Sequence to fold (242 residues):
Amino acid sequence: MSEPSEVIIPLFGVLDVTGEVVVMWIILAVVAALSLLATRNLKERPGKFQNVIETGVEYLDNFFAGIIGRERSRKYLFFLGSLFIFIIFANYSGMFPGVGLTKYLKAPTSSLSVTAALGAMTFVFLLVAGIRSQGVGGYFKRFWNPVIILPILLILDEFIKPISLALRLFGNIFGEETVTEQLYEILPIGAPLIMMILSLLFCFIQAVVFTMLTAIYLDEAVETEEDVQAAEPVVMHVLPSA
Fold:
């Protein structure tokens, strides 16, 4: 296993700012700056930059609409889209010069603390969205069952979901960076380049998987009784003719 990045800035003698945190701050600043530039002067006939941003937003909307429906996609796109954008920026940040192969700067998603925070944030969002959609009683009603052991399993499942999201993302990105680092030490020319080319697809897939599963869990959390009844097959009773 590769060593974690070293402390760069001791903050007030209490918190230590590591390379993952520094890269994460840079990503947040870049995304915020791009968002401000894209929304500052919106035009009916967009320029190239606005057109690129709108195309990306439309792609995300269509992607999530295919999972949770258009109405819910528009309603929750602010969270799902932001989650996807941050994760894909964080994944690809490890491929920039000076990041990933050094002991100072690392991709944020290669740190378990960052992916655990993403998982915890997702858990809270799913809980709030479910309660706002169904009410407190309606949301927790699904955990009730006459069988004693089943509610415990259902409750555990709610905690396992964000944990599995965090561990999956961390394990894949950390493993990819570790393999690249080891290849760089063994064969500095050639081998790491091949791994980085594969990472272009690999990092994108991990961002898609995290947000896709989040969207599926969100659809389950906000599902109402009307949705369940609408999804039930309609049985046609054919009466015999007289």
